[in-house]
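Narrative progress, year one. The postdoctoral researcher (J.K.) led the effort to move from monomer predictions toward full complexes, under supervision of the PI. The following entry was the first complex the group processed end to end, covering 370 residues in total.
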Amino acid sequence: MSKKAFRPDVDAPEWRGGYSPYDIIKEGTIAIVIVGLLTILLATFFGSPDERAITMKIWSNADPIDFAQTAISEMNGSSTTAGYGAPYNTASDGVQLGPLKIAKFMGVTIPINTVKDFIINPLKSWPNQPALNQDLATWSSASSSTQSGWVADYTKAAPNLKFVNGHIVAQTTNAGPVPALIDDLTQMAQSGALDQALVTGNGFYTTNYTKPLMFLADSGYLANLADKQHLTGSQWGMMNETGQYPGQAWLWLYTFWYQIPPFTTSSNADILVFAVMAVLSMALLFLPLIPGLRSIPRKSRVYRLIWREHYQG
Amino acid sequence: MGWIGSIIPLDNLGHYLHWHFILISVSNLIVIGLMIVTFVAALLLPFPGRSRRKENQ
């Protein structure tokens, strides 16, 4: 029976030298205690990022015109949410990886109709508003082509909206009840009532913030705040934290891909980056099985630097 | 306890370095620098108990 050849990357030679006792439990305990103390000390003296949550009330009071412009983009279907596709609607194929229409395959699991869910239904829930109820009745009784005409007319006026004496003013000619609906929604948001109307919950606790988050994400207001704090995708935002706090530096490779073509221009960048990182992660996971790559530790001889005392002896 | 966190205020906008498509905050750069220093130290610093082992030999 022939003896198998020794493979330096795979086989370990039998150790014929001496042994020393080593207490890994002791070392682990010391490491946990030191890291725990450092965590408590750093958290105590540096605090932690605690930006105030942005609500519809804060947004609509800070920038009522942006709020109204976002609201009309939800009505005319030009907002990101309205055109996103699955899991929110069927407006587009959604995220896809090459020919694989992954989002479409998964289907609409969190249905959002931006006109009904962001505009009409919240307005319907605002109590004691007789004029608003009349406008809502006009809207509901109109045909969809009439509604589209009104919305198109308001859309033309949207770039030049004004906020005068606490009201949104639009120079429209034939927008039906839309100017009143947008103004009422802005008033409702400024009062804080829209925040509650958009939050949905199936149980005692109302914890589903999907709708207000999606509405807010469609705004220019949130994008501007994120840009100022260097938190957008094109600013390596995944790595950054608010203020001067250090961020998630270990995510550099994920966010790196978002800075270079073709990811910078692709509408499917998220799934493409996910796929690239999946391939790289698999390569790392199976490193011991990949010829050439698995030889790097042995050939680079870094181990001889770490264990130099042994190799000198 | 809230006041303790304000001893070193970090809430104002951070400083960023920009070079071509690379955009990095100074605080992240410091953390990365510290990680590299720690890695090099782990390679170069002698293991504890070295003198004791030599005495035993």
